């Protein structure tokens, strides 16, 4: 393996620092190295250790090694709390360039204040750097507003609002235009239309050189009591949309139940009428159509119009060959086989049923 393997017994765990979908992070002591580290305990060790071991950048937390003995899978990284702030534009450097690392989980909780970005790359689904650009815009919104994005909404609800309804976080009217423009260009619906990280860094550098922007930002933050109401009103609107969605989902489910019950009743009636007419040879065209509509699966039932068009009665059905079915439009070999077998099965079943009903004395041993 390209990374250092660390024995689990070398780690002494202290308090929990945080947790997420992939695992839990603890402050720990790497006893043999006498070093305080951050240890991320995982349920399984995937590609993350290999990716981290290949990265070396001042803006990425240092990766020391991994515990690979099951079930104690861990990633061991640096743990720094010796700075006051970190400028997030510097942390974007590993996410740009000709071969950028795709973070996929860039959010405020993963931007370590007084430390560096923890690179978290999971290579299970095809992604592009544009997903990190979108995430960066959300982090920027949090930094500006000091608010929780989509507060009170669950992850799946947010995903539905963003993707299906094209909703975005509200940008207060008094937000400095340069920041507002940057966020909008980063969360465009089409990934190819978003800024890339080189463009973001260039834009941030220009903003740093803008003398009036600092005063605009200070003025914006002082007005928080006013523009916070805009955010709360937007959130309430989104929650109403969510409630409407829940109501519609409930109505659709109830409607589906009703339709399902009606369909079962219809099939049951058709089967009952067929069972009443035991002789396939005596079936009318309507009987043949009722029979095919009672077969399981919508694919076979779709041939009912073909049967009507070709005036298929029970007798004709019983005499049909595979070539005949092909000629009238049953192109699927599997469907032809099912339609040829089913009438024979129906006749055999009926013959046995009739025999048992009409000759009960045969059940008595001679």
Write the CATH homologous superfamily of the domain at 128-269: Transferase(Phosphotransferase) domain 1
Order of helices and strands: EEEHEEHHHHHHHHHHHHH
Main structural class: alpha+beta
Which radius of gyration do the C-alpha atoms yield? Answer: 34 Å
Distance between the termini: 80 Å
> What is the level 1 CATH name of the domain at 128-269?
Mainly Alpha
Domain Protein kinase: 11-208
Keywords: ATP-binding, Coiled coil, Kinase, Nucleotide-binding, Serine/threonine-protein kinase, Transferase
Coiled coil: 210-258
Protein name: Mitogen-activated protein kinase kinase kinase 20
Which secondary structure elements does this structure contain, and how are they paired or packed?
Blueprint: E1 11-19, E2 23-30, E3 35-42, H1 48-53, E4 63-67, E5 73-78, H2 88-91, H3 129-145, H4 155-163, H5 177-186, H6 197-208, H7 211-222, H8 224-276, H9 285-294, H10 298-301, H11 304-309, H12 314-319, H13 322-328, H14 333-358
Antiparallel strand pairs: 1-2, 2-3, 3-5, 4-5
Write a concise keyword list for the protein shown above:
single chain; 366 residues; alpha+beta; Transferase(Phosphotransferase), domain 1; DNA polymerase, domain 1; five-stranded antiparallel sheet; 5 strands; disordered C terminus
